[in-house]
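As a warm-up, study this chain.
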Amino acid sequence: MSSVVNSVILAGSIATPPEIKSLASGLSFCKFELLIRSQRKGAAGEKIEEVDVIPVVTYGPVADICIANLKVGSNVFVHGKLKDNRWIIHGRPRSKIEVTAFSVYPLAETIPPNSARGK
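Now compare it with the structure written out below.
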């Protein structure tokens, strides 16, 4: 395979207050966590709610827009790529996967319960 696709599209709500920081170069970046809820049926047919919390980071103008417009509970659509960060602390390897977002779009504040999404 000569090319690899690394693309992520997520929709959820902001779980943590967006935090802005700057790199040594002066480029700003914004970090927040995206809360994604889904439901599935269990073995006995009961509804089981699953919740995922995904770390997201944006850079530059997108970061500035996020910090100015997003708050906890805001519903957003995120398009980006997966980034695997690895480091060693106290001699033990650590890693964290996060989404580096290219774009973040606000969504309607509420999603109708009978909307066209998987059930």
